[in-house]
Amino acid sequence: MAQARKTPGADLARYYDLDLLDDPGDVEMYLALADAHDGPILELGVGSGRIAVALAAAGHDVTGVDNDAAMLERARAAWKGRPPAAGGGSLTLVEHDLQTLALGGRFGLVILALNGLLLLDGRAAQLSALGVMAAHLAAYGRAVVDVWLPTPDDLALYDGRLVLEWVRRDPDTAEWVAKTTSARHESAAAAARVTTFFDAWADEAPARRSMRADDIRFLSASELVALAIQAGLEVESTAGDYDMSELERDSDRIVLVGRPAAR
Description:
The chain is α/β, with parallel strands linked by helices.
């Protein structure tokens, strides 16, 4: 029997995990970066803990920050459900706006993963987030930001059409869930409004719909580099994929690694 619905926020957090059954492939990169840099780890926009839980389970001390309580609840449950890490490891979760975060500690690795920067409201907000990353870095630390670089062909699909992306079984409720999106690109503002519908149904219950709307503020590779420098980071490297391959003109993402700028 399907479990009772909790809240719209809980539904959306659960569907976020269902969406990411298509693994972006970035966790191995973060595990390698964590092994290469000593000290605790801070993840901004930790969400439901996909990366943070993996890092903590590998023996690292991780602090995850998000302003979505439902997402953090799933992260807590995911960490609680993992077997103890052989080499220790811990996960501390903090509900807070990442743009104004001031934890008082310094970290060997600070992460803002999987387009989290693009969901912030404009350049000033993006600069604030990068400044928070710089402010929380230890002297030896590294900041890592991962941003999608859409092509004109990608954005041509952002014309308001409805696109059915997948239909999947929700393991938490045994319901079927369909994800449909509609996106509209505003080229002058380098932005897009993406509306996502999740329709859930079970044999014994009527269908119900959850919806979320996201405003995406795109950045070019050069704009991200300039913002990082303005925020107090020295750009150490830029890669075009999670294997840290060279950033090319046709790369569909940029992974930027920065260190504290010399003062």
